[in-house]
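Reopening: structure tokens for the adenosine-5'-triphosphate complex, inputs below.
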Amino acid sequence: MNTERLKQIENIIGEVINIELLNEQGWTSKVSRVQTETHTYLLKSAFTKRYRSWLVREAYVLETLQSTFLPVPTYYGFFEDEEGSHLIMSFEEGMTLRKAFSLAKTEQEKCKLMNSFGELIRKLHELPLNEPLRKSVPWLDGQLKQAEINLHEGGTDGNDVLLEKLHAEKPAPILETMIHGDCTMENVLVRDGKVETFIDVADLTIGDPRYDVALAVRRFTNHPQYIDAFYDGYQRLAISKEEYAYFDQGLYEFF
Ligand SMILES: Nc1ncnc2c1ncn2[C@@H]1O[C@H](COP(=O)(O)OP(=O)(O)OP(=O)(O)O)[C@@H](O)[C@H]1O
Ligand SMILES: [Mg+2]
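Re-run output (same inputs, fresh job):
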């Protein structure tokens, strides 16, 4: 790490004793564990224009959420240098739900995890709307616009025909809630067998709760027992097959 960046980090959290890259890295950032005498922090850095802009948003969302009861990491600070953008938050013990699920030995354990995932998402969907996090255009319109941009920039699985279909076949409107916006099993952390914390919150906003549900149960279409366990915890609307297809096999193909 260059000395200038280290200095910036120490301005925020005090003297650093150790920094190490995590074994589990995301796609769009570099994550490190940063140790001081008293605390452990998570440094999330991004280095390309697109991913840096996502990190700016994540910092804003995380800071905005500090005054709510939503379980997210504590925000400590954000800074930029010539090469990248850097967000410092609390290091949360635990492992991603993806990993916890793969380590679970019994069906019962797996169902318990999915039930707990449902409960955590219910908490989020029942929060009062946090207006500073609302986007300037209605959520689905914004997503379709972004899908088009991502399609033209390349690197997505979607195509023109699918995007046209998504425009033509929008699902019936639904009451908006707070949503995570990228609610996959990689983006929540499990501790003591419970899904406790949302991470990777750049897309957390006011939007369509069916998107979170679709991403949460994705890939489980052949395992109804996990979907049932999820809904036992979630306790809110169940999405239809068509809605699931619109969001998971449709919109999500562009992100
Ligand atoms: N606050 C935190 N405390 C502990 N571990 C964390 C924290 N935030 C992230 N991690 C770890 O770092 C990994 C990557 O984090 P994150 O999902 O935020 O990065 P990302 O690059 O945005 O991911 P992607 O683009 O793949 O969705 C997580 O899977 C998790 O293991
Ligand atoms: Mg992630």
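The CA atoms of residues 67 and 74 lie 10 Å apart. The domain at 95-254 is CATH 3.90.1200.10 (Aminoglycoside 3'-phosphotransferase; Chain: A, domain 2). Marking as resolved unless the reporter disagrees.
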